[in-house]
């Protein structure tokens, strides 16, 4: 808890903010709606300070440390229990009775808020479940680099934040390998360019004299006709990568 205390005048200022449920000299309680909105924007990439400012809070009044601690606490609760973990349940958990009974309108309002909270969590789970199935189906029989690319494209497409570890664990690859893959993007582009150049040469030999050839014939044609040295292993890799398939002659059933 932050050591900053609120004066009577500051309490009055904070009480005017619709995102504040209650406030005392020592503590402030935010509405569940604001917590939900905060997590949505935080997961979308906004900074805690920016979210508080956009929702009418004075950073100097609250203190940046209090904001950071609040963001950390809400994020931990969200990771553990989802949106339900953000609900203020201290009175229920402590067994402290309310000083007054809720009115009918307050009960309805709370139930509606709870329903909206649960609906939001269900939609999020549906989205994640669909993404999980797509990732698992698409990652079958892929080498690690392709899996890393799949994770990257999924995160970018759906704007998932803080989900890298989850997706890596889901697909059985390491986070360190994923981040190394991202850092090596420049070298991959250079390798891709070299492969494209090699593809052009191999394709010429592949279609030489009007019929398709295998890696052995391609290697000999490159060396003899084009004065180009290339290992057979590289030729096979380029052929697999770009889908160059040499037809195999069917065996004669008469023999």
UniProtKB/TrEMBL annotation:
InterPro entries: HTH-like_dom, HTH_Tnp, Transposase_IS3/IS150/IS904. Transmembrane segments: none annotated. The keyword Coiled coil applies. Pfam families: HTH_21 (PF13276), HTH_Tnp_2 (PF20310). Residues 195-251 form the HTH-like domain. Keywords: Coiled coil. It comes from the Bacteria. Residues 108-141 form a coiled coil. The keyword Coiled coil applies. This is HTH-like domain-containing protein. It comes from Peribacillus simplex.
């Amino acid at each position: 808890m932050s050591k900053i205390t609120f004066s009577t005048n500051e309490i009055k200022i904070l009480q005017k903010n619709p995102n504040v449920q209650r406030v005392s000299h020592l503590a402030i309680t935010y509405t569940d709606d604001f917590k939900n909105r905060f997590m949505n924007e935080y997961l979308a990439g906004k900074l805690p300070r920016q979210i508080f400012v956009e929702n009418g809070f004075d950073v100097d009044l609250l203190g940046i440390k209090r904001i950071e601690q609040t963001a950390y606490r809400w994020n931990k609760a969200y990771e553990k229990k989802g949106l339900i973990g953000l609900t203020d349940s201290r009175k229920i958990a402590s067994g402290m009775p309310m000083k007054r009974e809720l009115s009918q309108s307050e009960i309805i309002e709370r139930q509606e808020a709870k329903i909206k909270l649960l609906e939001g969590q269900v939609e999020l789970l549906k989205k994640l479940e669909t993404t999980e199935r797509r990732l698992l189906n698409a990652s079958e029989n892929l080498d690690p680099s392709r899996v890393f690319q799949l994770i990257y494209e999924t995160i970018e497409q759906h704007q998932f934040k803080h989900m890298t570890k989850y997706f890596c664990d889901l697909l059985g690859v390491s986070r360190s390998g994923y981040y190394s893959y991202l850092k090596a993007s420049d070298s991959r582009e250079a390798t891709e360019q070299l492969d494209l150049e090699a593809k052009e040469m191999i394709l010429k030999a592949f279609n030489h004299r009007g019929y398709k050839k295998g890696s052995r014939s391609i290697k000999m044609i490159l060396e003899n006709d084009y004065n180009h040295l290339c290992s057979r292993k590289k030729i096979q890799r380029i052929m697999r990568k770009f889908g160059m398939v040499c037809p195999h002659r069917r065996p004669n059933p008469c023999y």
